[in-house]
Q: What sequence folds into this?
């Protein structure tokens, strides 16, 4: 599930470093709006990507796919981005963080989605450049959780068209965090299924599922914890990019992040508890197996011994001559057997 | 026991979001008082809910049920609440927190109650809006822990009628926290019952009870820990809503919260310890089973072997011809058996 | 061992709340002294309890038993105590803490004593009100660890008669903390006894003792940890009640508290380690049992099989006709048996 | 893998202390450059080592091997190093740290490399003295991760030739940290191999591999954690040696360090999880063994008992005389056997 | 190994409290030096001990044994020590700490030494009083780690004779910390021996050794952790006793302390890992035992059953009459036996 990409070794930071990523074309869409106007277009020609640069309107450039280097170079030049930022955008194994470069803020976060088909959590890195009147977002591939926001901009629903680019950024982060709740729900369901299994039919497979669940949680945690710092950083940023009035919304996303973290920690605690049940359940079943063995062995071994005694070939064995010797022996066996059965019954072994 | 409600995804914060909640009517009661006057009424007409808004008296509006949206909209308009606050009130899966909006303070907390019938802890979210002379409290359903406070207001008992709205808020928080002690007591009793069971008759069921207890504690902890921050926030609030003189009472609730947290942590430690006893107790019982098996097998297998030897059909077996051969053989068996019994006795196996 | 008392629910803080406590009379003693004078008397009449209130001498009022409400009311009135303080004094399930009320400082701590008869640690709550020239101490019942201090005051030994009330408070706290060392010693002894037992004759009982030891430590910890804050609070108090010169003594008690905490943590670590030994020791013993079983079974089952073969009743079995057939068979059995014994010897099973 | 070298005991800090290290000659290379000029030479004569000392160009003196004491003494004298710095350079068991001596900054870090041949992580200590226009680096032996940087300086690629000595230091630290990712990747691969093994064929050897993996992680952690402080120290340094403009690059390395730490922690969590699988897998296999034993024993012991009964030699045993007695007995055995097989089938034992 | 001494209960701090310590005479040596002069003498007469008090030279008074109370009283009087300091010196169960009394600094630390004969770590408390031109050190008994420092003073080696008393204190602390590395090395060796044992021949004894190792580490940790604060306190002390120039040396000892702490933590982690190996190794061995038992039982029980069948005494058993019946039976047994052996081989049980 997890691929760790090695960063270039000692190589100067530059765009060419990302040559390992497949060369599929990027898809670039621009949404430009203010309270009254609204433009949306898909860019085919790199030259067009910065046309709204100097307009006072809010410009959201979204790029799906990180392979078109000329595009990145143009953006870098036109918007004056730092080479390290470009390198970070291309390296899709970043830890969520925010960096304030004065004239713009750079953010990376992890967008999680649940792949129903493979019952797996998928991680995609989203980078954002937030300037005074523009937002550039970079995604690894097409498909994201921002469609409802695009719809809201188009239909001028809510306050989004009346607010600045910092409110746009808030809605995007909010959408990312909201999606975490979906993932947590899926994991919560998995845990419930596993617990059911644990109680009824625990197998070595259950154990492996618990393990893979714990693993998923380790990586979920790695994605979520730094979000706290990220949003905190935005809240405390002295950059002019973030307006005071947006602070209250950031506080709200911050609370949601804390809630996600809390839930991840609770789920971790629960998963640990499951392991304990599993181990105790194995031990219990071994106990059961042992008891069955012991009951069979302990009852029949003495009986077999009695039969063995009267199977000896001594010349002089008085009992063998008795008329009812055989029945006496059978009764003796029955008596011993019943005594032992009662003994184990009293010990509550069955 | 725990239901995680998914928050709306990327949807603009607005009241309509709560449409998932059942449409039962809310019950609204207003208590308005100062040292001399006292009014209490149940509101049937939404228009009435803000009638005491501009009066200098303390007004406590309590709303049970979160489904009457017009009511919420009216309150929002009349008291100038932020849309995010309304959203948080409607989302009943909040983490306890307090937020200072300048002219009012918003608080969420978890009211726990013990459902005797189902032997379960029930969680209900209580939101409060605390303004200069009003308090609006929102609950998920009817029934709460505030009745004794209402009674104190009615009868002008204690200092409550002489004090402001911040003292009222203190008594409400105090009542919520006090109720946690009740829950802790119930859990403490459960632990005692479980320990008794563990020592006398541990079963797989006991294990599951320990597990569900740990789970309850995880969620209890999630409700209690943030209360610390909440009360701390109130104490340090620079808002004019909280008067200096109330600080000492808040310090008192704060101490109680710490005590609840301490107790939750101690109970967690105890529950972990129980698991260790359980596992060691299973191991001990397996040991017992093994010993029984070993004693039976180790004593009778050699005896059966001796019987087997004298059951062989060799033509020439001198012992078989002896007059007392049979008795010698029986004596030999007895000797071997007694030796083995003594051997296991000395090993302290029984 | 631990009784959790539920606090009153939503009831206004007042003295009557403590009605649950038995109505035995309180015992009140006053010690009043300065460098030259010394008075000690047992108060029978409530009116007398505040006679030294305005004297410049140091007054120590000690109250054993919390049931005489008129007395508490008088003290409250005369010394101007806050109602919450009175409530805290009466609620004997407080967490150790100190609170600065300006004109006086309120402290609660836990006095531990070891009940030799029941081999148990007993907890008693001690509350203290420290004013400019008076100290009021409240205890749950008679008997405390302060006798040597009383003796020192009587005999004017050491600096105590020359110092103020803050030095008196230091000696009292010091005596309480000193007693913790005694308790730790007792627990240390218990651990040594348990370890001896673990190594020699571990039983399910040992396990339970370890568990109850851990439990004792959980509660000891709960009593000791907050003492750190308490003393720290006294040290940092800006109240005029604590003189600069006493600071050095408080630092000393603080160091002792840290030492107690350190030791509690070490003992906890040791107790956890014991559990591991216990579990491994059970496993080892099961191994031993298994080995005995395996050796017996593995040696005698093949022999019994051989005997069984020659006990078959086939018409034509050449060996049976041999003259030394029987002895050959016995020798064969001996050979098989010895081989197996050697096999297990080489495996170091015995 | 780990050798802990004892520091000299109570001996005054001086160069002679390092006499324990083998006396192989050190290899000294000097790279001196600015935007236009570039010199690189290997020093054979100690006198030459400080020739660029007063030049305004950036001078990088790299020393492989710590045995040439005259060289160290000359550097110490010429560059005015503190004796403790020299001692720290010679003691190759330092914890990564940075110390600001005003006119120069001293840094120690751990350079990790993966020895493919022995499948082991190797640790080498790198010390650096960073002055206004010089950098002296000390390594334990030849071979490092800096070759690409040397190449960049030679070819004037990137910004390195245009920047000062602080940018050079950044590239060196970056190269060291980058190499940690390689190591983490190797460990990640090991974990994957081990997990495969755990699931398919867990042996005692697997357990030992997990243990040695955990050990490697303990030491990796010890190397990486303090790097955080080191880079933080550089960032916050008020020394004139670090220019403002380099801060952004240090922030970047800092982020990478955090990422390494995060990954180490995640790998640790995973390794712990593996242990749990291992233990549960052993328990499961014991269960399997027990079941086989129980099935064999429980089925054949009753059958053997029946055979034993009809092997008794009583005079009067009616069944023996029956014509089909033998077949009835065989059928009885078959019936008992099949019943037991069905019983275990229903218990899902096979 | 660990003796916890109870402190006096409620007794005023005074020298007589130490009466429990054996009355052997103390040994007092004075070393007095400056750059040019040097005096060393063993004091026999208490009057002599303060003769260098007013000299501007550095005076180091070392006292081995804490039993000569007149000596302590004289020092207390002459150097104006606080009674609590004297009490702390006499109580040899102190936690390492430093206290600044303005005119002098008081320090306690733990000097560890390895008793080769008993393979045990021994703890001795060293107290130091550091004044402007004097240092008084108290040790529990003769023999310490300071001999090389004395030698350096005598021979005027290094900077020690040129520096003040604060440099002397630094060298003493450095010597104490250096010795910790020796102890850690010994413990490291023990761990290696134990791991070898664990892998090859784990016994219950190994378990106990791991336990005692963990215990040693608990106490080592208790001695080392507070050293961090102690040295930190010295570094940040505003007392005139510590000169600025010594700060760099203190930073060095601080680094060493951190290194010791790091190593202790790593060793603890390793010891925990050993326990896991131990438990898994016991489980594995039980598995082995079980397999042996199962193989023997499962192979021979069916064979014995066959023999039992043909040992029945039915009148009419056709097989018994067959000419080759016996050999057919033997072949059948061989076939069954071989099948089972192959079955277990395929299950990889041997």
A:
């Amino acid at each position: 599930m997890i691929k760790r990409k090695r960063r270039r070794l000692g190589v100067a930071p530059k765009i060419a470093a990302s040559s390992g990523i497949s060369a599929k074309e990027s898809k670039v869409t621009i949404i430009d709006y203010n309270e009254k106007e609204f433009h949306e277009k898909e860019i085919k020609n790199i030259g067009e990507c910065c046309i709204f640069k100097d307009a006072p309107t809010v410009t959201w450039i979204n790029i799906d796919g990180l392979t078109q280097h000329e595009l990145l170079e143009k953006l870098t030049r036109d918007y004056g981005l730092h080479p390290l930022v470009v390198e970070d955008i291309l390296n899709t194994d970043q830890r969520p963080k925010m960096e304030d470069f004065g004239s713009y803020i750079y953010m990376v976060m992890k967008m999680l989605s649940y792949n129903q088909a493979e019952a797996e959590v998928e991680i995609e890195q989203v980078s954002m450049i937030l300037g005074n009147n523009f937002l550039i977002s970079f995604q690894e591939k097409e498909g994201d959780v921002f469609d409802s926001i695009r719809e809201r901009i188009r239909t001028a629903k809510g306050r989004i068209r009346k607010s600045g680019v910092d409110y746009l950024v808030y809605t995007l982060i909010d959408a990312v965090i909201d999606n975490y709740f979906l993932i947590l729900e899926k994991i919560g369901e998995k845990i419930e299924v596993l617990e059911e299994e644990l109680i009824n039919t625990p197998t070595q497979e259950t154990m492996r599922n618990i393990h893979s669940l714990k693993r998923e949680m380790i990586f979920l945690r790695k994605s979520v914890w730094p979000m706290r710092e990220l949003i905190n950083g935005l809240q405390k940023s002295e950059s002019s990019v973030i307006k005071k009035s947006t602070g209250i919304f950031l506080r709200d996303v911050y609370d949601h992040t804390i809630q996600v973290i809390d839930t991840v920690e609770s789920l971790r605690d629960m998963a640990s508890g499951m392991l304990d049940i599993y181990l105790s359940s194995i031990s219990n079943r071994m106990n059961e197996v042992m008891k069955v063995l012991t009951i069979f062995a302990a009852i029949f071994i003495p009986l077999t011994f009695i039969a063995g005694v009267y199977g000896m070939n001594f010349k002089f064995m008085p009992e063998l001559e008795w008329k009812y010797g055989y029945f006496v022996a059978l009764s003796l066996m029955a008596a011993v057997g019943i005594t032992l059965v009662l003994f184990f019954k009293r010990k509550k072994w069955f």
Q: What stands out?
A: The CA atoms of residues 208 and 214 of chain E lie 10 Å apart.
